[in-house]
Write a structure and sequence with these properties.
Length: 475
């Protein structure tokens, strides 16, 4: 098959979160399973240093509002059957960040990603790509199924929802800017509470819809998780599937990871501890009595459960010999809340605000436990990465966290992590205390680590599920 993947970020070219890991992995996986793959991305500032020798191909000119906006299609076959296609438009994409600043989203995001969607259509035509499938990801690609229809291009589309809460809703005026016919602006089409919704457009006009775990695929049909789109999702239920994300074990492997202080394996767990001491030294945290280290690497968004975490840690830090390292960036109030907590418990808690790939690897390697108390979580990769590093996840039972983490049972000794059901700081604190107890029983804890490290969430299985779906779509 000839498969196009369209995303607003993909490793190693651009990244703010898990979407990048997933689209970057699928690019390789589809190819490895015998398909010609094309990955479409915006050419951001941060992408420049990640790729060289791109072919400065065709110029494009796209009508936005009354103006013709010029851009270019850059391309490169990075290995056999793997082609990257970058949409260059410096006014839109040559910026410090991908989507916005601390002050909020860029105010022209509808225009930026509208342009991106139109440019993808142009590229497919200009480069004669003859695609069988277009795999679209999240709201930033949501208008593509509609543009395909308008252009009478019969490529089958799968629209994957990585997070239903990010919808790309904009004022109706955007219709004119992107020259979308008013006839689509109704409740069965692209209109969403009197706005144009990129996400809803993707849901309505794509051939199939998927999301990133089986549990989240069910959850989004309910009012609680449906983000006001549960109605339309229910109407398309027979075209909706949940396919669990995997991770790339070539990138995430404690035996080979070049970012970490000491490589280790299931056979040499003693070396894992050296990573903990090293990080302790770097971050001025005292590990003398060997207290457990709880790590967290996360976008700081309400979704991630930062509110209950702060409450739980306040309580625990008073009473327990606990250490915590949090790396994240995002909403200002959450950053400030965490920084205030650090200030209060300086000897126990370290909060690093920023996006830091190498440090993230060191946290996965050094920690004993990984915190992910998300209110909701479509899939989550942090907990899957942690398992591989023998770092035991502490999670709320929701979405993909539920599909990947089995709560440890002290009697049967089964399970690969610790989980809780009720979204509250008490439930989280109690779960951390349970983890603490097991940590103090070294035989139990080491066995649990081994179980975690033996879990396999490689892409092999899920990649095949995507391909089966593509074949079904083409029949
Ligand atoms: P989400 O996509 O909702 O952000 P996931 O758990 O699916 O959550 O994926 C998060 C990915 O982003 C992981 O690869 C994680 O290591 C990475 N990540 C998140 N925040 C940071 C950060 N501040 N620095 C480095 N990597 C980060
Ligand atoms: C989103 C979700 C996360 C998921 C990731 C990749 O950002 O929040 O749960 O793992 O996409 O699919």
């Amino acid at each position: 098959m000839r498969i196009g993947i369209v995303a607003s970020e993909a490793t190693p070219f651009s990244k703010t979160g898990g979407l990048a890991d997933v689209s970057g992995s699928l690019f390789k996986v589809f190819n490895k399973l015998g398909n010609e793959t094309y990955l479409f991305l915006p050419y951001y500032k941060e992408t420049r240093s990640k790729i060289n020798d791109v072919n400065k191909g065709s110029k494009i000119s796209i009508k936005i509002g009354g103006k013709n906006i010029e851009g270019r299609i850059l391309s490169k076959e990075i290995s056999k059957g793997m082609n990257i296609i970058l949409i260059e438009q410096n006014g839109y994409f040559d910026r410090e960040n991908l989507y916005g600043t601390k002050e909020g989203d860029y105010t022209d995001n509808a225009e930026r990603f509208g342009f991106f969607n139109l440019a993808v259509i142009e590229s497919i035509k200009l480069l004669n790509l003859n695609l069988d499938i277009l795999h679209l990801n999240d709201w930033q690609t949501g208008l593509i199924p509609l543009f395909l229809k308008e252009n009478d291009m019969r490529i089958k589309t799968l629209f994957t929802i990585h997070n239903l809460a990010y919808q790309g809703n904009f004022q109706k005026g955007i219709l004119e800017l992107l020259q979308i016919d008013e006839k689509y602006f109704n409740i069965d089409g692209i209109e969403f509470y009197n706005n144009l919704s990129f996400l809803k457009t993707g849901i309505v006009y794509s051939d199939f819809i998927s999301t990133v775990s089986p549990t989240y695929a069910k959850e989004i049909l309910t009012e609680e998780f449906g983000e006001r789109l549960d109605g339309i999702l229910k109407a398309r239920k027979d075209k909706l599937v949940g396919i669990l994300n995997g991770i790339d074990y070539k990138i995430w492997n404690p035996e080979k990871d070049k970012n970490i202080y000491k490589n280790y394996s299931i056979e040499s767990l003693d070396l894992k501890k050296e990573n903990k001491f090293y990080l302790g030294q770097k971050l001025v945290l005292d590990f003398h009595q060997d207290p457990p280290l709880f790590g967290m690497v996360s976008r700081l968004a309400t979704q991630k459960g930062v509110d209950i975490l702060v409450e739980a840690l306040k309580d625990l830090s008073k009473k327990e010999e606990i250490r915590v390292v949090i790396l994240g960036t995002g909403e200002k109030n959450l950053e400030e809340g965490l920084k205030a907590l650090e200030e209060e418990y300086k000897s126990k808690i370290r909060v690093i605000i920023g996006f830091d790939e190498p440090l993230s690897h060191n946290i996965y390697a050094a920690s004993d436990f990984f915190l992910m108390p998300s209110k909701y979580e479509p899939c989550g990769l942090g907990q899957i990465i942690s398992l591989k590093y023998g770092t035991i996840p502490v999670v709320k039972e929701t979405g993909g966290l539920k599909d990947t983490i089995d709560n440890f049972n002290d009697y049967t000794q089964c399970g690969n992590g610790f989980s809780f059901d009720e979204y509250s700081s008490e439930a989280l604190a109690n779960t951390i205390k349970r983890a603490f107890k097991v940590y103090n029983d070294r035989t139990k804890f080491n066995n649990l680590r081994k179980v975690a490290m033996n879990c396999d969430f490689s892409w092999e299985n899920s990649g095949k599920k995507y391909l089966e779906l593509f074949k079904k779509m083409m029949r």
